[in-house]
Each structure stands twice: as structure tokens, then as C-alpha cells.
Specification:
The complex is a heterotetramer, with 2 copies of chain A (about 375 residues) and 2 copies of chain B (about 375 residues).
Chain A (H helix, E strand, L loop, with lengths): L31 E4 H15 L3 E5 L15 H5 L4 E3 L4 H13 L3 E5 L10 H8 L2 H4 L9 E6 L14 H5 L5 E4 L3 H13 L4 E6 L6 E4 L15 E4 L4 E5 L4 H13 L4 E5 L2 E3 L3 H11 L2 E8 L4 H13 L8 E5 L17 H11 L9
Parallel strand pairs in A: 2-3, 2-4, 4-5, 5-7, 6-7, 10-11, 10-13, 13-14
Antiparallel strand pairs in A: 1-8, 6-12, 9-11
Helix pairs in contact in A: 1-7, 3-4, 8-11, 9-10
Chain B lengths: L2 E2 L17 E2 L2 H4 L7 H26 L13 H8 L7 E3 L5 H6 L9 H4 L8 H4 L10 H21 L12 E6 L6 H13 L3 E7 L2 E2 L2 E2 L19 E5 L3 H16 L5 E6 L18 H8 L3 H11 L5 H24 L18 H15 L12
Parallel strand pairs in B: 1-2, 3-4, 4-5, 5-9, 8-9
Antiparallel strand pairs in B: 6-7
The chains are: A alpha/beta (about 375), B alpha/beta (about 375).
The complex binds thiamine diphosphate (2 copies) and magnesium ion (2 copies).
Cofactor (chains B, D): thiamine diphosphate
Protein name (chains B, D): Pyruvate dehydrogenase E1 component alpha subunit
Keywords (chains B, D): Oxidoreductase, Pyruvate, Thiamine pyrophosphate
Chain lengths: ~375, ~375, ~375, ~375
């Protein structure tokens, strides 16, 4: 095959910071501008200050402050018994976090990169996810597992995974994904405060995105952790995504608007439970759905969203829901990742196709 | 009491020979100084009772009242000796065969069989008896115990303000595991974590010689007790059919953990005299001669012989104990057969601690589905 | 909640053996009647006789012959270097199988029960599934992982799982599921002969089902491992399932026929790749789809099948594809499993609903 | 040659002091009898060359030609000493930092950087050089090595017909791992399997003192070399900055495996002088003084001092070696910068060995999508 000369319809790929605290109730405090990774650190600091049962476990999270510096300064502040550098063994980390939860702690675990979560899969799906049900509600598992997730950063093998479907398919877990600094801080605090285990995905490619953050937002007044939100309203197509692709989706909506296509962008936020009500309400208005995610297509979250939307909105659908996703391949080497990841052009192509306009491929 | 001086020569802590002869062993005896006759009789009764409960549960399975049962026959000393060494505030993370440990923790008799009747994933409230639900995934509980112990340390540090709390008196977490479990990554990782943090945890391995059909030498060509030293954890090998020796070494290990000395690994050498579970047919993989040989080292017979020799046990006491055992068995049976199946919708209970919209919808959907079957002229069903 | 008196529409739940070698080319040899588990053993024996590079690894597979006796007699016949009882460590089993494949072997691994596969998740999804791609095709991984799967047998915790979606979502693997003795024997031989890693699911509840088996069937002439097959034709609804529920689906189709509803039953067989062509062709005929599986609904295979069918058959669909699945709960205790597993009544309820007839729940 | 008799006193096999003083150690020396001057010079050249390649790759990363590079600076002796002990038919399963081992396996220079440029998941053909792709998941490769070695044994048994082949001459699998990797379940499980089957595998652990920011004592409070004995595997600790000692102990371990003696664990005590990778900033977690102290124990300087003292190395030879190193570096650079990105559709290549309908459809779909972008009046693009 000859390699193609790719001409993008995007005018630029400027990072957007997202809408910040859209839908969040603020307590009127002064806000500061933080990167997403600093916002996470701020959320951790506040959660630890609020509740001494909150402890952090992970590799390199102490002196180094984590490879993404999310926990920077926390060991200094809270000591090495609350910010615990662990041996290099992820099953050990999650397994001991479970034991600490038995003792009444609220452990927050850092898995250094998405690709290292599989070695602790059993402790997550067979133990953590089931302990509350297993013990008939006697032993809650308020464990938060932070996972830097996704690609687009030119990383080495096993550093760009999108394993969310594995966890969304696992009963007993909650799964959330943040896309902007305010959500990073607030949802992380909500996750830690939640009595259920939460898989908390941090999109690596957005760690450096800046935004205004109110660290002290009232958790109960804020948008609940399990709610989706409409980031941009539109009338022609509902575009659902989360995490790393939220910025791309908003860019795509802007680009489409220039061509007269009105896209409603939904940041799903919670991947388990999925806020089907918000998605379905949007699709009932637009009649069309595009879901985009980085993970492989087959049995990805896109399938679940498409299937459920079809169940709920069958009479409203003008076209079959359409998925724009990573291919069913192991994450490719960095120099090829742009041919794996959905980008603005592939999303717009999907939008065109769901509108019956053919799309790039058949123009 | 007959106490001889001949020490065991096989590196195994042993106070009672198979024939009930008692050896003096100052290192161990000092952990048993408080044992008066009542305490000795108590240990004996414990062993007899749990053996009887175990037999009853096996019978209940054969009669279709239980779905499955993993018998502990032969492991009574290992479980009672260690279980009785614990303090109420210690916390046990066990595998699936530790019925006698659960008994020591004060689990209600009927609660011992709930899991095996197939009506619950945990028969008791772990926070009440301080024993987690039986773990089926081999070795996973070793990490939970270690994490629990890390939490105990963290609490102590937080409370004292000092990095190394002075003269601590810590609760201890105890992980029970089998010889087969020694091969699992999780167990070895738990040794790493326990050693690194010097967590107050005791790993109590019942080497009952078999992991289903696999003999222990498939898991290790060297004694299991040797494993822990390479992780920086002291190991002790004890005759698991000698309830006194087990009690002594477990007390010592607990004391080490309690006082800030970190983890200990105990290998209790014993034997699974019955099948792996009631679904297993051990005649396919092991010889009657081996089973016979271990029957001669039986922990209950051995302790009875010792107690009789020491004048602590006589026929009257024996029948009193047997009656207690029969009562326990009857209680298990009565409790078991009276257990009703849970309400269908409990399938959805406790999956989440806080409402989960997706599951709530499924619950409502299924409730509606079930309602569709209700015969209006039939009064409400069982349960 | 009051427990309901459940009246089943099924006249009986007699096990059906399935259609046996439907679509299989036989080489004219005499066939014998075997249980599904014996048929698997026969398949293993033949694969080992045909190729000395085939070795078996697993717990208790030697002298005991496996807890389901599938490997009964094989160690006696082929020796303990080809039928290898392993230490009790599943990651070790799969990891060493990968190493043996590096050396040119074709390992067949037995995971004793479905619930024990999670401890080796990394070796399967990060290593086995990717090694061929990672090495640019230089190192094939012809490893077959046999997993007794599913519920309905009154088993203990972790012994009734349906983890197929995890593997179908994992690029690089093939996933198959057998439902009758002939398929058990033939597809297992095909899986072992395949140069890709194959997750091979054996439905526990059908181990004792008997059927005629031709052990010597020509593999190339037989129905390919990745093809679905229509087990019963029908005109009103397409009912897709696999493995343990195939028998139930056929029973449901019989019961529905009595009520005048014509169900086409598709045994999916291959869960990766999915034979969407066969499914879509059926749905184009019937206009309606019901998928049923034991696994949790969210992000299960049913979502993928529903989404893809909607993509391919949107204009032909009379109703939204419908899923009848296990709930999003940890597998419940044995005495409750009938309230988790799809059964004949729940399937018929789904069929009624997709036909717009309300179904039990709303009658 | 200056050879003193003072044996190392710290339980570490060492033939060369930090200042290049050579000790006699008959147990080790017997594995080095064949080393003539050319061989010694060869080892030296190897170390200098790989150090130069490593520096060049680091520079290429700084210049944006590589996405990442994990430097081996300081570990040359550990890698060359062990790598040169191997036979061509042995098979290596390494981690990501073993560039010098790959060099010993005959990997083409440019192939060393393909992975780190982000254009391939494996830079070479593992079957040609008998070295697997660099493993990123910590410890996973230890099981692959063990399984490979089990396969070697199985082949030997099949070939000989005997259960224990007589006087075997087996290929050996070598697993390279780090100090951090010792905590992973997979590594410990690999010890179990290797011991059980007495597989011909050598575990070569480079204890470079750090796992990213974590010092080795977070992984273990006892020397790593102690770990293996508890699994029934002999362990040996060697000065990993002494190329001769590493060569000797690795040869001995390989010989044991080759002749049916089973696995060996080698702990090579060394130091990662550079950052974990080019993305790391080690000043955040370790002191300059420590780095300095280890620089004084540098493996290359040490060997040079010894060779100069022994009259095997002079200025001429040194410049010849430096030129060879420069040539290698230039070749890496030229090769690297000439590497083109792969064709987009190769994303779909080799995912399956046999056609997979689902992926084939996705490939076709994506090819069609890409075709939609082709400017008809532009001639076909790069690659
Ligand atoms: C991860 C995992 N693998 C396999 C099994 C199946 N299994 C249940 S018990 C058992 C043997 C355990 O042996 P051991 O640890 O010695 O304990 P014992 O049964 O002798 O008490 C096996 C293989 C399991 N439960 N979990
Ligand atoms: C399973 C897993 N967890 C975490 C990581 C992240 N990681 C990469 S290298 C490394 C440190 C490894 O240390 P060590 O084993 O000593 O090898 P070294 O880097 O020193 O050569 C870590 C934590 C990983 N690659 N894989
Ligand atoms: Mg055992
Ligand atoms: Mg290291």
C-alpha cells in the first residue's frame, strides 16, 4: 500500500482546556489556575487533609512525586506512612490496599501506567470489586485506583493503553474518567469519598492542560461523579466521548460548525455506571450518535453505548450509531499511533457518515 | 506428665510424639506456661468438636444439604493450636478449609456452612468475628493480611507520632495458606511487602502434603519453611499434628509481630486425611499406605494419649467431650437444614455500597419480570 | 420483596445434545458416542498424536486427569514431559507456555476454572496476545488456553464465571466456545492447529452432554473455527448465543414454536472474530435480534453483537436488538444462580419483548 | 599481571578491585583459563563500544531522534561479562536496558534503537539472534525464559527417550531482570517452575541499586542473592562491575544448566549511573555523593586499569578501541536518522498469524479512509 498524503481539515490542534467547572457548584472561593496533574495533586492533598484514613500507595510516589509528579510534595507533608512508596508489584499494591480497607483506611493507589494494571487484574476484579457483596455489605472497599491512561504521547509499549472496558464490564466497580483540571480535582475527591472502589482514569495527554480549579468545591453540591455532561449543545449529531478525546471532540465540533454541522458533545465522565439518561436525551434531540474512544472497537464501551442508545431511542434514530475507535490491534509503536487513535479527521469522517454524507473515505 | 528430653531431630518443632510422649523444649515451653489442666482439656475438646462438625458437614454434603465441603480431617491441631493462640482483636485472612479457625473466632456453628450450602459468599460478619470471608482464589488473602497489618502499623504511627512506635502492642493479622499457595505470585509478593514494612503479620502455612492431586514436592523441592528467609522473614517449621507445638510457635510469632518484630512464616507440617473436597476422589492419586501412615500420626489421638498419660483425660471427660461434639454436630445439622434460600432480588444486594444507576435499573427490571409470574390467586411463596 | 411463584413455560428442561456435526465434513469414519468432556480428551489425544510439539500444561491434569477428567489417561500415554502437572500458579503456567512456544512447542494450557484466569491476565493480554505482532511475525504463539466456563452447576465462588468479553476485547487473541461433543473435539483440534493464541471455552454445564463424535474429521474440510452456524432456522426472531446457553436457546425455540413464534437460533461458536456476516444475514431475514449470554450485560458480547447488527442491518430492523444476560453483579451464590442466568423463560420473555408483545414482565 | 591473593571479604565474587588489582580465586579462575590477551582486549573493546553506543543513543534522544532511551551507563561489565559467556544457541529473555547483551547477540547496531525511535515493538528478529524482544512489563520475561528452558528439557527427553537424559549438553535460557523485578509475582513464580522442573535457565539479576526512584532496600531488606535458595535454586553474588568475575560466574551457571544441574540465580551488584530513562530526573531522589562513589567503581575504568597494569592495553590499543567505538556510534546515528516511519497500514500487520475477519475488515475500512485523503495530483508520498 502506498502511504497517503494526509490533509487535515483541522485548522490547528490547539489544546482546549474544556469548559472547566461546567455544572459544578462553587463555594465562592478564589480559584487558581492549575494543570490537570497539579489539580489531581490538589485533590489528593485536600482529601488527605480532610480524612486521615486516606493513604496513598504506589511506585515512586514518594520522593519522586510520581512519574507525572501528581503526588509531588505529599510525602513531605503527610509522611511516609501515608504516602507509601511500595515494592515493584502491582498485585501486591492493590492486594495490600484491600487489606488496609479492611482496617478502615481509604487507600488511593497509583498504577504507574495503564499497561501495568493487568498484573493486578485478579485483585481488582475478583477481590476489590466483590468484597462488599461477598461480605453482604459488612466490609466496604473505598479504594481508588488512579491510572494514567491512553495514548497520544509518543510513549513506549504498554504506556498508552485504554483498558476501561475491562473494568466497566466488571460488576462492583465504578469507573470514571476526567478531562479537565476542575473535574480532575473534584471527581478525584468524590472518588476517594465514595464507599465503592473506583477506577479513576487520568488522560496522560491532558496532564499539562491548564484550567481554573476551585479545590474546595462542595462535593455534594458539585456535579455527581456518575453524571455525564453536555459540553457543547448541537442539533445534528450527538458525539460521546471522555478523557483524552474530549478536547478532540470539541475541536471537531468547532470544525464541523464551520461547515454547517451542529454537533452536541457529551463528556461521559462516568464509564460505570454510564449516564445513559443524558446520552439518550441528547440522541432523542439529534437522532444520531457517534461514540469515539481510543480503545479497540470490539467489545469497547462504544458498543455498550451504541447498544443502549439503540434500545432506548430506537424510534428516534435516523441512522445506526457509529463508532470511531482504535483498531483491534495491540497499541502500535509511537510513530504509528496517529493511525490508531481517533483524531479530528476520523471523528469528522464518522460524523459525515452518520449524516449519510459519505465521509472522507467515500467522498 | 511424662516429659522426655529427646528433642526432635528433624528440624521440626515438636512437643508431642505421635504416641503422645511429651518432650521438654524450653524455647517452646515458655510459651505454654499458662496452660493448666482446664486449658489442656479445652484444646482437646476444641479438636474433637471441630472434627465432629467436619464429619457432620461432610455427611450433610453427601445428603445433598450442602453443595460442597472441604474437610479439615487431620488438620485439627494445626488449626486449633494456631486459632487458639490469637487474641480477639487479631484478624484472620484464611483460605477455604479453616473451619476450625473460624470456630475459634467464635463464628456461629450454622454460619460455618452457609457458604457451602450455596446461599452466601461469606457465612459471617467479618468485622464481628475478625475473620475475613473464606478465600477461594489461592493466595490472594496473603496480601489482604499484609495490607491489614500495614494498616495496623500506620495507625500506631499516627497515634504515637513517632516513626517507630515504642514498645508497641499491635493487633496482628494472620494469613492462612496451603502448601500449594506457596507457588502463587501473590503469596510471594505478600512476603515482599510484609518484610519491607515489617508489618505485624503471621503467615501460617498448613503443609498438608497435597494441593488437590499435586504432592508438595511439585511446588517445592526444598522444605517450604526455607522460603521466607530469602525475603528476610524468619521461618519456623512445626509439627502441625501437635497442638501444643503449634500453639507455642504461633504464640511466639504473634508476640514478635505484636512487639514490632515484624512478620513470621510458620510451616505446619500436617496431612489432609480426607479428599480435597467432597467432589474429589483422592484414590486416583495417592496410596492408601500413605493415608494410613498419617492416620497413625493423628493429631487428636496423639493429644488424647498425652492427656490420658498425664491424667488430664479420663473416660468421663471423654464422654463429656464427645457429647459436646455431638451437640455441636446436631446444631450444625439443625441450623443447616433450616436455612432457607435467599430472596431472588438479593442477587442485587450489596454489589455497591452506594446506589449505582445501571444496576438499580436492572434490579427494577428483574423485579418487574418476576412479578409477571405471580399467580394472583396464589399466596406469597416461600422465604 | 416477596418471592414470586415462578411458573415456567417450558415443558421440561431436557438437555439437548445439539445438532452434532452440523456443517462438518466427515471423512466417512465410524463415529462414537462421547460426552463433551470425553470428546475434548479425544481431540487432545489426536492433536498430540499428530504433532509431538503439542504439550499440555495445567494443575492436576496428570494423574488425576483434570478435575473434569478431560485429560484422563493422557499422561499415561504421552508421559509427564508432554502432560505436565504444574505448580499452582496460573501466571506461571501461561508465562512458561509462552516460553515453550518460543521454543517451537504448541502448548495447550488448562486453567482449572474460569475464575482463576484473572491471575494470569497480564501474561494473556500483554504477552501472549501481542507476541506475534511485537516480533513482527517472527514468533508465532500457537498456544491454546482451555477454560471451563460458565455457571448453572451449583458451584462455589469463582467457579462460574463468563470472562469472554475481556478476551474478545483483547486484540491478538482468538476466542471460541463449543456447545456439543463434535465441536468440542473438532474445534479444539483446530484451535491447537491454529498459529494464533486461542482462548477455548468449555461450558461446564455441558460436559456430560453426549453426542456422536468423529474424532478424525478433516480439519480443513470441517466448518472453520471462526464461523457461526444456524442451528435452527426461523423467520420471526434471530436468537444468538454460544456455549452453555445453546441448549437453552434451542429449547426456547421449540417452546416458542408451540406458541407460533419462529426463532432462528445461531450458535456463534467464535467470539473473536465474530462471524457478523452469518448473524447479519439472519437478522436481515428476521428483522429482530435477541442475544443471550451468561456474562454481565454491560460491555458484554451482547453489546458488540447488537451494535454491529444495528450498523449492518439498520434498515432491516423491526425493533432494537435485545439482550438477555446475567446481571451486572458478581456471580451469586449457587442457590441464587437461577436468578442470574438467562433461562428458557427469560429468553422467551426477551423474544416476546422484541416482538413488541410485552413479555412476561408486562403481560 | 598483578594478581594478589586477598579474597573479597563481602561474599561477593570479585576478581578485580576498583583500582584494577586482580585477585586469584581458583573457583572462578578456572572458568577463565581460555582468556588470552586478544580475548581480554575483546572484552574491553566491547565495554567501550557499548558505552559509546549508549552515549550516542542518549544524545539522539536529546536531539529528538529517539523518543526515549534507558541508558546502561555503569552496567557494561554486568552485561558484557554475562553476554559474552553465552553460546550462540542459548536464548536471552531480557528487560529493556540490556543493549549490551543485544550487542553480544549480534544484533545490528541500528536495530538497537528501532524500538526507542518508536517505529517497532522489537528491533530485531528474535529467532535469528536468539534474543526475545525487550520486555517492558517488569518480570514477565522470567517466565518466558523458564518455559523456554522447560521446552529445551522436553526436547532432550523426547530425543533421548530417557526421563533424565544422560550427560546432556543443553541450550540454556537466560532471563535478565532488575532489582525491582525481584518483587514481582511473575519472577517468583518463575523460580518455582524453574526449580520444580530443574530447567536449564539462568536468572541474571542486575542489581543496579535503583528501580526508578526506589532504592533496592525497598524491595528487600536482605541481599537479593538470598532469595533463590528458598526456592531450591543456588544463588551467587558477583561484583557486577568486574567483567571477569561476571564472565566466570555466568559461565559456571550456564555450565550447570547445560549439564542438567538446573537453574542458577546470579545477583550482579552494579549501579545505574545515569537516569532511569531519558525521561527521568534522578537528582530528585538520589545524592550526587552516591553517584560519585559508584563512578569510582566504574567497570570500564577498572578493567582498563587492570589491562594497562597487565600490559594488555596501551595508548595505541586504546585509540584503536576508541575509534571502533566512534565508528559504532556513527553507525547508530546514521542508521537511526535514516530510519523512516512505517507505512500506516502496518498498524494492522502481524496482529494475527492467520487472517482474522474482524481485523481484515477494519484494515480495509481504514485503507479506504486513508485513500479519501489522497490528493490525486500529488505523487505517492514517503516510505
Ligand atoms: C488461583 C487459583 N487456582 C486454582 C484454584 C483451584 N484450587 C482450589 S484448591 C487448590 C489446591 C490448593 O492447595 P493448597 O494450597 O495446598 O491448600 P489445601 O487445599 O491443601 O488446603 C486448587 C488448585 C484456585 N482455587 N485458585
Ligand atoms: C509491571 C510494571 N510495573 C511498573 C513498571 C514501570 N517501571 C518501568 S522500569 C521500573 C523500574 C524497574 O527497576 P529494575 O527492575 O531495578 O530495573 P532497572 O530499571 O533498574 O534496570 C518501573 C517501576 C513496568 N514497566 N512494569
Ligand atoms: Mg495443601
Ligand atoms: Mg534496578
Amino acid at each position: 500500500m502506498s502511504s497517503a498524503t494526509v490533509t487535515s481539515r483541522a485548522t490547528g490542534t490547539t489544546e482546549t482546556t474544556g469548559p472547566g467547572g461546567a455544572g459544578q457548584a462553587t463555594s465562592g472561593r478564589a480559584v487558581s489556575t492549575l494543570t490537570l496533574s497539579r489539580a489531581l495533586g490538589a485533590g489528593l492533598r485536600r482529601a488527605m487533609s480532610d480524612d486521615e484514613k486516606v493513604v496513598l500507595l504506589g511506585e515512586d510516589i514518594g520522593r519522586l512525586g510520581g512519574v507525572y509528579r501528581v503526588t509531588d510534595g505529599l510525602q513531605e507533608q503527610f509522611g511516609r506512612h501515608r504516602v507509601v512508596d511500595t515494592p515493584l508489584a502491582e498485585s501486591g499494591i492493590v492486594g495490600t490496599a484491600i487489606g488496609m480497607a479492611f482496617r478502615g483506611f481509604r487507600p488511593v493507589v497509583e498504577i504507574q501506567f495503564d499497561g501495568f494494571v493487568y498484573v493486578t487484574f485478579d485483585q481488582i476484579v475478583s477481590q476489590l470489586a466483590r468484597m462488599h457483596a461477598r461480605t453482604a455489605g459488612r466490609v466496604p472497599m473505598p479504594v481508588t485506583i488512579r491510572i494514567p491512561v491512553g495514548g497520544g504521547i509518543g510513549a513506549a509499549e504498554h504506556h498508552s493503553e485504554s483498558p476501561e472496558a475491562y473494568f466497566a464490564h466488571t460488576a462492583g466497580l465504578r469507573v470514571v474518567s476526567v478531562a479537565d483540571p476542575q473535574d480532575a480535582c473534584t471527581v478525584l475527591r468524590q472518588a476517594i469519598a465514595c464507599d465503592d472502589p473506583v477506577i479513576f482514569f487520568e488522560p496522560k495527554r491532558r496532564y499539562h492542560v491548564k484550567g481554573e480549579v476551585d479545590e474546595a468545591i462542595e462535593l455534594d453540591a458539585a456535579l455527581p461523579m456518575d453524571a455525564a455532561r453536555v459540553l457543547r449543545t448541537g442539533t445534528d449529531v450527538t458525539l460521546v466521548t471522555w478523557g483524552g478525546l474530549v478536547g478532540t471532540a470539541l475541536d471537531a465540533a468547532s470544525a464541523a460548525a464551520d461547515e454547517g454541522v451542529s454537533i452536541e458533545v457529551v463528556d461521559l465522565r462516568s464509564l460505570s455506571p454510564i449516564d445513559h439518561a443524558t446520552v439518550a436525551a441528547s440522541v432523542r434531540r439529534t437522532g444520531r450518535l457517534v461514540v469515539t474512544h481510543e480503545a479497540a472497537r470490539t467489545c469497547g464501551l462504544g458498543a455498550e453505548i451504541a447498544a443502549t442508545v439503540t434500545e432506548r431511542c430506537f424510534e428516534h434514530l435516523e441512522a445506526a450509531p457509529l463508532r470511531v475507535t482504535g483498531h483491534d490491534v495491540p497499541y502500535p509503536p509511537a510513530r504509528l499511533e496517529q493511525h490508531h487513535l481517533p483524531d479530528l479527521d476520523r471523528i469528522l469522517d464518522g460524523v459525515d457518515r452518520v449524516l449519510g454524507r459519505g465521509g472522507v473515505a467515500t467522498r | 506428665m511424662t516429659v522426655t528430653d529427646a528433642p526432635p531431630s528433624d528440624g521440626v518443632a515438636r512437643l508431642l510424639d505421635a504416641d503422645g510422649t511429651r518432650h521438654a523444649a524450653p524455647d517452646h515451653d515458655r510459651w505454654l506456661e499458662d496452660l493448666d489442666e482446664a486449658a489442656l482439656r479445652g484444646l482437646y475438646e476444641d479438636m474433637v468438636v471441630v472434627r465432629r462438625i467436619d464429619a457432620e458437614a461432610t455427611a450433610l454434603q453427601r445428603q445433598g444439604e450442602l453443595a460442597l465441603w472441604p474437610p479439615l480431617l487431620g488438620q485439627e491441631a494445626a488449626q486449633i493450636g494456631s486459632g487458639r493462640a490469637l487474641r480477639p482483636d487479631d484478624f484472620v485472612f484464611s483460605s477455604y478449609r479453616e473451619h476450625a479457625v473460624a470456630y475459634c473466632r467464635g463464628v456461629e456453628l450454622v454460619d460455618l456452612v452457609r457458604v457451602w450450602r450455596g446461599i452466601a459468599a461469606c457465612g459471617w460478619d467479618p468485622t464481628a468475628v475478625r475473620m475475613a470471608s473464606p478465600q477461594v482464589i489461592i493466595g490472594a488473602q496473603a496480601l489482604h493480611a499484609t495490607g491489614y497489618a500495614m494498616g495496623v502499623l500506620t495507625e500506631a504511627v499516627n497515634a504515637s507520632g513517632a516513626d517507630d512506635p515504642d514498645g508497641p502492642d499491635l493487633d496482628v493479622a494472620v494469613a492462612y495458606l496451603g502448601d500449594g499457595a506457596m507457588s502463587q505470585g501473590d503469596v510471594n509478593e505478600s512476603f515482599v511487602f510484609a518484610a519491607t514494612y515489617q508489618a505485624p503479620v503471621v503467615f501460617f502455612c498448613q503443609n498438608n502434603q497435597w494441593a488437590i492431586s499435586e504432592p508438595v514436592d511439585l511446588q517445592s523441592r526444598v522444605p517450604l519453611v526455607d522460603r521466607s528467609a530469602g525475603f528476610g522473614i524468619p521461618g519456623v517449621r512445626v509439627d502441625g499434628n501437635d497442638v501444643l507445638a503449634v500453639l507455642a510457635v504461633t504464640r511466639e510469632a504473634l508476640d514478635r509481630a505484636r512487639t514490632g518484630g515484624g512478620p513470621t512464616f510458620v510451616e505446619a507440617v500436617t496431612y489432609r486425611r480426607g479428599p480435597h473436597t467432597t467432589a474429589d476422589d483422592p484414590t486416583r492419586y495417592r496410596d492408601a499406605a500413605e493415608v494410613e501412615a498419617w492416620a497413625r500420626r493423628d493429631p487428636v489421638d496423639r493429644f488424647a494419649a498425652y492427656l490420658r498419660g498425664a491424667g488430664v483425660l479420663d473416660d468421663d471427660e471423654e464422654s463429656r467431650v464427645q457429647e459436646a461434639a455431638d451437640r455441636a454436630a446436631a446444631a450444625v445439622r439443625a441450623g443447616c437444614t433450616a436455612l432457607r434460600d435467599p430472596d431472588p432480588l438479593t442477587v442485587f444486594d450489596h454489589v455497591h455500597a452506594q446506589e449505582h444507576a445501571g444496576l438499580a435499573a436492572q434490579r427494577a427490571e428483574y423485579a418487574q419480570y418476576l412479578d409477571g409470574f405471580v399467580d394472583d390467586d396464589v399466596t406469597e411463596g416461600q422465604s
